[in-house]
Every structure is written in C-alpha cells, then in structure tokens.
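Re: adenosine-5'-triphosphate structure - here you go.
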Amino acid sequence: MTAKVAVRDLRVAYRTQKGRHLALDGADLRIGHGEFVALVGPSGCGKSTLLKVVAGLVERSGGEALIDGRPIDGTPAGVGMLFQNDALLPWRTVHENVRLPLQVAGGDRAEQDARITELLATVGLDGFAGYLPRQLSGGMRKRVALARTLASDPDLFLMDEPFGPLDALTRRRIGAEFLSLWETLGTSVLFVTHDVDEAITLADRVVVMSAAPGRVLDEFPVALDRPRDVRELRFTPAFRDLHDAISDALVAQAHVP
Ligand SMILES: Nc1ncnc2c1ncn2[C@@H]1O[C@H](COP(=O)(O)OP(=O)(O)OP(=O)(O)O)[C@@H](O)[C@H]1O
Ligand SMILES: [Mg+2]
C-alpha cells in the first residue's frame, strides 16, 4: 500500500545573504495511513523545514516528497495544518474564524453554521461562539485554531509544536483531548515537538532527527495500548524506558559538533 507520506533522501538548501544554507540533507520519512508520527530533534535540525516541505510551503532542492504516491507541488488538498503561532483573525468571532475553511470550500451557510457549532462542541468551546479571540485564553485560542483545522476535514494533520506556547498543564490537557479525538478520526499525523513526554504519549512512532543539517537518525515504535490513559501512561515502566532511550538519542545529537 502506498504511504500517506513518503519522503526520500530529501535535501533542502535555503538561499540566504551568506549563500546557501543546507537545512536538510538526506532525510527519509514514511507515514502510513492513519499513523501518528512524532518528530523530535535538536533545535535548528530542520523539523519545521521537513514539515513545510510536506505542506508544500518550502521547495525541495533534492530527493522526493510524496503524498498518496504523488509528488507534492503546492499546498496539497486534504492537509490540515496547526502551527505554534497560528493566528486567528482578531476581528472575527470564534464562530466566524472556524468558518474560514468552510467558506473557501463553499456551500450552504446554514450547513456551515451547524458544522461550526458541532466543531466548537468537539473542542469544548460551546458557549464561546460569539467571543473575539482577544477575549479568550491562550488555550482557548488553540482550541479555536484546532476547530478551524478540523473544519477542513483533513486526512493528514501537519502540526508544528501546536501546543508549544501553552503552560505545561494546559498543553497536556489539550494534547490528551486531541489524542482522544484522533483516536476516533484515524487521520494520519506528523507532529513536531520538543517534548519527549508529549511525543510518546501521542504517537505510534517517534522519529529522531540528527543535528543540522538534519536527517532521520533513529525511530522508536511506541507499543503502548490504545486508547491511552494519558494520566496513567507516564508512570508505567514501558513509558519510562522509551523516554530514556529517546532522550539518550537526543542527548547524543546535542554533542555532535
Ligand atoms: N526561510 C529560511 N531561510 C533561510 N534559512 C532558514 C529558513 N528557515 C529555516 N532556516 C534555517 O534552516 C535550519 C532549520 O530550521 P528549522 O526551522 O527547520 O529547524 P527546527 O528543527 O524546526 O528548529 P526548532 O526546533 O528551533 O523549531 C536553521 O538553521 C534555520 O536557520
Ligand atoms: Mg521548528
């Protein structure tokens, strides 16, 4: 079966004032249909670059990047993105922010309204439809951004430290909610994070990248039962062992000159 995402020998060189900057050099990645892959690696190793190539936002200088077996050229259909600094439109209410992807898709306004109401309930924001973004907490704004991403009904989520700016507790809570949502959706996910706990809690497989210029070094299957009880999980020996192994792989990278 073709992979949802297949990246082979990917090379990305950015043009800068000082010449060309090699961000990725020989990166390989495969994401199966319905698979949840977390990507970790040292800062600057090219995680966001890899994700942006899959999102069609950054051009590759060499190698292959395919979705459903087709080369990526521009932003592919069916891809939902959630980034660290996702901005909501400040002048639009929560309800109207979530409408954006539905508006792009066209269709009946009443149907859109019903779908928006349903999505806001899914992310735990019923009752806040009429609020403006500035009237919400950071965690609530993330939920709106998540609802907006869900509105486009993606079959592939590309998430770059999506819950990064939140405090640890809120991040964990939203992460757990996203996990149970994903368990019902079965969407493929590529999830970039610095947080090894978060990576193991969520993913089927944790992929570790090398220091820059990045390539994929190692991967760790997460053989923990689903649905996962996030509150219990991190106290289990299996979780701790995996955490140690991934942390060791990351620390080894930090020492590479
Ligand atoms: N648009 C750009 N132009 C030039 N260089 C860039 C550009 N975007 C990223 N880079 C460089 O490419 C390298 C990889 O950047 P990238 O953002 O992919 O790293 P990252 O792994 O996501 O880092 P972090 O964990 O800090 O988010 C860095 O050295 C960065 O300076
Ligand atoms: Mg990044």
